[in-house]
Every structure is written in C-alpha cells, then in structure tokens.
C-alpha cells in the first residue's frame, strides 16, 4: 500500500507532462475537427453523419439498390426522381443529397450491410418514410400561423420578451426544450383554430419593471389571413390527414381582417420584474440580438411578416388546474347556449401517442406537408419501426 501511494504521489507531481510535439497534436486536432464539421447524407435512410469512414460509395448500377424501389401500385404525390437514369427508370427511392459529385451513391454502413444481405433496411426512406418537399404555401408560415392550422397540439410554448438595453433580456427562449404531453382527446376537423384558443397553448412572459404598450408588441403577434387560408387549402388537397377529415371554417376566416394581431396573447401577458435567477440558470448559450428589429420584421411587408426567434419550450396548464371548475363549466354552458362552434372536444379518453398514426403528422403539417412518413404504417409489414427508432431517425434526418 505504501509503495502504491508513493507511486501515486510521484505521478501527481509529474502531471501534467508537456506533450512531446504540441504542434503535431494541434495539427491533428484541427484536421479531425474539419473532417467532422461536414454533413454526410446516406442516400438510403437520409440521415446525417459526420465521419466519412462510416460510408461506402457504390455506383448507381449497384444491384442491391433494387431493394429501395417503389412498386408501381404505390403512388407518391411528388416527383421523387433523383436525376440518375438507371435509378429513376427502376423507381428507386433515394435521398438526392446522398449522391456524390461524381455520381456515386453514398450509403451508411448499416444501410449498405442490409442491402448487401438482400433486404430493404428498416431505416430506409423507401420503407414508407418519405416526407416530401415543403411547398411555397407552407414554407414561410410564422409559428403563430402554424398553430392555427394544426389539427392537434402536442406541446405548448413559453415566449419570454425582454426590455431593451438589458443585456440579460432577449425576445425568445432559445436553447432549452421541454416537451410535455398535451391532454388531447381528438384531432380537430374544423380549421383554422380560433385565435381565442391560443392562450391555452402559448404563454407570453415579459421581463422588466413595466409591460410596454400593446402597440409596440403587436407586430410580433401578427396573423396573415391569406397565408392561413392558402395553407389550409393546400393541405386539404394534398395532406393525407386533412383530405377527407378537415373542413375549412370559411365563416371564421371571413370575419378576419387581411392582417390582424392575436390580441388574446397580448391580453394574457404576465410580468416578471426580476428574472436574475432565471437568467443565471440559462447563462452560457447564444441568442439573437433583441434590439435588432431588422432580423425580426420585413421592412417592406408593412410589419406583416414578423416572427419570433424562439423554440418550443414547455406546456402551461394542460389540465386547466388554474381555472376554477365552476367557472369553466359555466363558460362551456354559455358557449353551447350561444351556439358557438368549439373545435376542441375535451374528455377522459386521451389519444395514444403510438397507436394514433396521424398524431405527429397532424401536429406538424409544415414538417410533414403530405402527411407521409408517419411513425406507424401497416404497409411496412415486418419492417415496422418502434416509436423510439422513428423519432431518432427524424432527429437525424437531413431535412432538418
């Protein structure tokens, strides 16, 4: 024991030892950093990797690629051709980003191994995981407009706004993401959702001594009627979950102005006068400049394209625990008495995340513009994916 302790003391005194060749170590470090700072896409699964040694390049004539072909009786509602004749003629579905500059097909080791063994990889996009390109009708929707056209809301968000000239304040929560299940009992079939329902899933918090006037904040909560209407029309024509299930509430849209402010969110703003403890908990991550309005508002769009640089952060009061039960009941009775259409039906039987095939594609129509690529699809047969595997693949998918 004494000898071991003496050895330990000796090595502690010698630590840290100077590297023999620090320039070489630094050179290797920089080289590996640059090698890993690239996105490499697998043509089969569409996942993004960063290490080139994990890939094999095969020619388009590689015979096992036939396992990625789409049968003639299966229709894909967009042009999935990749520009390589032999692949397009055989309806082989691959991710275009997986084709190298010299025309080779890049496969990750996992997909390449399964194809070489004579069967389709479970992770392949050809395994009914295709998603499709985002159309122009959906691509520039603001976060607020997306909420109004979604059939279900599986998460809520907190928006923190800060006062100017305060280094610790910022206009949107970034960096911390928390998802909690929403108590959802059904998918909405009458859209758009009423703006009066927005405070149920969005909470706005102002950090500062006094909340500014609503007029100075309204440009950040703008809704463009034509964008919502055009998006819904496109979804009803093209999205699997919307085509036969959703009716556009034109009477509600007719009541909207061409551009209006979601005053319901402005009316529900809460204030935190001292957020030093909260700032300390989030110290150390980057954020957008809160005082630069040009980054948030299109100056040529008459303040109609304002958007907030925030990510979904959390759900607020999913079970209405802050509401007085009697008041809630009276409000619902009043709604029925006045014959007001209510999109959301509450109940005790909640939708199951895994068994409800349309849950995620209905919740995020911009991510799944055609409703394809669901986490469950009976057409996959023995190649069905677990929910965890599906989520992992989506997070690593090249589409971002």
Put the structure in a nutshell.
The chain has 400 residues and is an alpha/beta fold.
Question: What would you say this structure looks like, in words?
Answer:
The chain is α/β, with parallel strands linked by helices. It is built from 15 helices and eleven strands. Strand 1 and strand 2 form a beta hairpin. The longest helix has 15 residues.
The helix count comes to 15
What general outline do the C-alpha atoms trace?
globular
Record field, number of beta strands: 11
Q: Report the biggest beta sheet as strand number plus sense, adding barrel if it closes.
A: 3 strands, parallel
Unreliable spans: 167-180, 277-322, 335-346
| Whole-number count of domains | 2
**Strand arrangement in the largest pleated sheet:** 5-7-11
The helix-strand sequence is: HHEEEHEHHHEEEHEHHEHEHEHHHH
Q: Roughly what is the average pLDDT, rounded to an integer?
A: 79
Strand content: 5-15%
What keywords describe this structure?
single chain; 400 residues; alpha/beta; three-stranded parallel sheet; two-stranded antiparallel sheet; 15 helices; 30% helix
Secondary-structure map:
Blueprint: H1 2-14, H2 22-36, E1 40-41, E2 48-49, E3 55-58, H3 85-89, E4 105-108, H4 109-116, H5 136-139, H6 143-149, E5 157-162, E6 190-191, E7 202-207, H7 214-217, E8 222-224, H8 225-238, H9 240-243, E9 247-248, H10 250-255, E10 259-261, H11 263-267, E11 270-272, H12 276-281, H13 325-337, H14 359-363, H15 387-395
Parallel strand pairs: 5-7, 6-9, 7-11
Antiparallel strand pairs: 1-2, 3-4, 8-10
Helix pairs in contact: 6-8
